[in-house]
From TrEMBL:
Keyword Signal: yes
InterPro entries: Hcp_Tssd
Record GO cellular component, one term: type VI protein secretion system complex
This protein's name: YceI-like domain-containing protein
Length: 169
């Protein structure tokens, strides 16, 4: 009786310890990586998260003019929108900061999303003719995964494709 009780207790304890270890290792299951090509240089940055956004604007109903249009101007039916990528970077290198520092800098790049367990397919987001839209750097006295804080980056690009599917603007 004592042996079976000890065996049952050992089994319950080992199962509960295994579940905790598995849950803790799940933190780094997905690997996100940004690769930028600018000025003949390739810059790689690890990311915590990425979000894509596409905005399109349509002229749904013509506006009635109070005054007649004497110039006979025609306006486009579709106004250009934008493709935006918002990222939370683990650390920003000086090389990447230099790319972002110039106002007119354009760059191409890729974001690769990999399930390190191999259960989900790899997702690749490619973008071209991108520029920095917004940048935020937050520092703290606390450490976040061996970094000073968090960095938020938003870029706007002319063209974006996800797993080879080009998203039209």
């Amino acid at each position: 009786m004592k042996k079976s009780l000890a065996l049952a207790l050992a089994l319950i304890l080992s199962v509960s310890l295994f579940n905790k270890i598995y849950a803790q290792s799940d933190e780094n299951r997905t690997k996100l990586q940004l690769t930028i090509n600018s000025g003949g240089k390739t810059i790689v940055t690890d990311l915590n998260s990425v979000s894509t956004s596409l905005s399109r604007s349509y002229d749904e109903a013509p506006v009635a003019n109070a005054v007649s249009d004497t110039a006979k101007n025609k306006s486009a039916a579709i106004y250009p929108g934008g493709c935006y990528l918002t990222m939370d970077a683990k650390k920003i290198s000086d090389d990447l900061l230099k790319v972002f520092s110039k106002k007119q800098t354009r760059f191409d790049g890729t974001i690769t999303i990999v399930d390190t367990y191999g259960k989900n397919p790899t997702r690749t987001i490619k973008f071209t003719n991108a520029s920095l839209y917004s940048f935020g750097d937050q520092f703290s006295t606390n450490s976040y995964n061996e970094a000073y804080g968090a960095t938020s980056i938003a870029i706007m690009c002319k063209e974006i494709s996800i797993n080879g599917v080009v998203i039209e603007q």
